[in-house]
């Protein structure tokens, strides 16, 4: 889930007319001082970080004037909170608070609807309040068609113990909070505390929005660069992976780096899972063998071979891994040969110099295993392929064994596109390019690209393969990037097919990682 | 019998001309599902895998006759519109295969389905398969593998992981235990038919004598199943496994979620609640087939359906 900082969240509240304390965000102490001077009175300086209990960590400070605010900002900026370096502070007027409430919208899986929660007692420890004073906390399940209506909001306030003008005031605010949650696709939108000031205003003294990852595409104004929940800022490689995921709606590619700054011989392996449940079990199997994960990857939901290939390239780009472990649920419904071709292309290009154990069980696993076994002749490092009757534990033990007795292999002969004499090219949906070298195709007896092309978009014209759809149709997704015209041609044909699949930012991230390997500092 | 899909159901495929739609329409037909029509707006008049394609669900209904189920293979941003179209046309069961459907879109589909008396599986589901009867979605991938892996029997399977759904049925089959129906409820936080809804359907299904459930951390689905068992609404024995025990610490639940759920959603919490209700919770995935055999042996139920 994409969490927003307070300064971002409060901007969303302002758009629906909910009052927030005067102030602004600063990235330097001088900025903080200027904002405080504009406010002209006592201020609060707040670290923008995703941890709770900032006050107790010294990450929320009071200041009486501009100089004090600048000093507080100097202390807070650069703090590490959780694993987040603090890069911004929010400087706001200090409110004279008479009472504190809690208001929040969450999407509730049991009600299968948004639920508004209001508590007449706010501040930290809202779970404890709900437990200890259930009479002060009221909930209302919202009708998605109607939204939260003002009378429902007033009733919610009444049930939480409010009455009189205050009830009316809260009743006016809660529907706006729901409107903001709905408009910005928030899984959760919370104001805590919702402050009643001495002069009778309701002000969102702190707030937090969590945006639905799946809806980020239709919230461009939020400028969410990375819609993944992490306990630290994303690494350069995680940003590269996220761009691959965002750029291709087919299937899911999830990537988290689990370790950095390791070296060969430490038992850290690249992990490539498929399917949520199976990935989790396979990860545990590696752990049981004493191996560590460089990363956690899940490619699932039937991604095309191109997406699995990009995932594999990203995994392999981590310096210092001792092996490569791919394992899913074991009995997958997706045709496993797409993933097999993807892995072979990545292993040839990278090239693979450490042992790999690949467990591609399920639909068409025999073909998948055959593809990997054929590639073994071209890859100096050991590659073993297994299917559904081989458990994750067995496969993880195989990898440990191979790592223990395999010295790092020399890089194999270079693999990649040879200059095409007579190139026939078309573009693909993710910015890739398919090149068929018709000079080679003419001599090719197999024409394997045509019979193995998953969407059957190649036909023979004379003695060479060409598209039987338009180039535009191919680019719109008619070519599914199954990689058969490259990998099958490599095995069976004349080596005339190549699919170029760029991965934006990967080279730069690799350079950054090599630097990191020495100082161990991510991003 | 089975739940949700059998050979009598008439099925529509929305998005049939797409990459997944075409491949899985072929799977469904070859496995025995009655696929009567496909929908892709703007591509009416074509034929895919021998199935006529229409521009709208209403048009399909007029020409191909009533439809029991629609299976959606549609890019996530367009799912809401397609689902609402099917519900408005009178389809009472939807299988929403795509993942990454925005959660508020799912809530709108929930609302429309509830008002129309319709139900849906998913989103983010592999689908539903009743061995020997039919398949909705993409379980098995190809008809040949689906036939090879699964056979009819007394166990109803419900899972929050797609790959695990098929793995469970396969490993049960290898232990000689057949299945009534396999359901992947979907991996998203809000799904149309979560575990408790599927378990209720299995309770009413005469072919199902025991239930195997794969749960995961997060949401309150497993706790709701425990509630049903405690209330006596589900009496058939359940064998459960909860995934995510080893998930890295710091798997977080939002503050507000913790309020609503009252501390529900953790691995330990789910196991404790299920065991407290009398559900057999196994610690290792590999123990599931054995536990299912034990349960069936106690009931004196044959492990697979006798062929007449």
What does this 3D model show about the protein?
The complex is a heterodimer of chains A (523) and B (308). Chain A folds into four domains: 1-20 and 97-233, D-amino Acid Aminotransferase, Chain A, domain 1 (2-Layer Sandwich); 22-94, 2-Layer Sandwich (Dna Ligase, domain 1); 236-405, Succinyl-CoA synthetase domains (Rossmann fold, 3-Layer(aba) Sandwich); 423-500, no CATH class. In chain A, 36% of the residues lie in helices and 24% in strands. In chain A, strands 1, 8, 9, 10, 11, 12 and 13 form a seven-stranded antiparallel β-sheet that branches. A five-stranded parallel β-sheet of chain A has the order 16-15-18-19-20, with helices on both faces. Chain A has a four-stranded antiparallel β-sheet with strand order 2-7-3-4, with helices on one face. In chain A, helix 2 runs antiparallel to helix 3 (66-76), helix 8 (276-288) packs across helix 12 and helix 10 (336-349) packs across helix 16 (484-492). Chain B is of the alpha/beta class and 308 residues long. Chain B folds into two domains: 10-121, Rossmann fold; 127-299, Rossmann fold, CATH 3.40.50.261. Chain B is built from eleven helices and 14 strands. In chain B, helix 8 (221-230) runs parallel beside helix 10 (267-276). Chain B is globular and about 55 Å long.
